[in-house]
Amino acid sequence: MIKITIKLFAKLKEDIGESKIELMLETPVKISTILDTISNDFGVDLSNRKNYMYAKNLEYCEQSEILEDKDELAIIPPVSGGLS
Amino acid sequence: MTEEKLEENSLVDTNFGRSDGSEVIFLGITRDNNFDRNVSKLLYESYQDMALLEIEKIILQIFSKWTISFLKVIHRIGFVYPSELSMVLWVKSKHRKESFEASQFFVDELKKTVPIWKKEFFDDGTVWINDKIE
Q1: CA within 13 Å, CB half, A50
Q2: ipTM
């Protein structure tokens, strides 16, 4: 078994109601598969959030990236730091 | 990053190097209006570990593109109210061109890649800036 931690922020955190999700999985898995799991389990359609980005272990990555044991995935809504 | 209010009277840094001819201080000030609506407060949230790494990358880019002697930035997290400072950036260089350009670059790049999010609170609702479901 592998353990993956998913960090949620901003609007997505509010929509799902969690800031962190921990998943126990049989095998390593693509980020895209994790997104499908989250969509199904929490009733949030992530497929229409096309401007979201993803980070594995603090580095930006693509949805095709594989998550392995102890990896941390962050789902990153459009950032808005600084001032307008 | 800090949850503490940034005090205006502590901003000026007069510790100039002998070859510094310019110091640019950028103050990001929270406005009381946006989208023609009254803003009562902002909430800044961050993925702090990654935000600090991304800010470091921007700073490294700046030092590779311009001859800068000093750069410091503080960004608020938590609630920030109108007229309070959301961010302060200090850049020192020999000539003004470098510190002006580096400051602009930092502020522009921060808004693209650093995982910090801003939620605006209005009289009639709230919005997470830039987050629209397509």
Answers
A1: 2
A2: 0.91
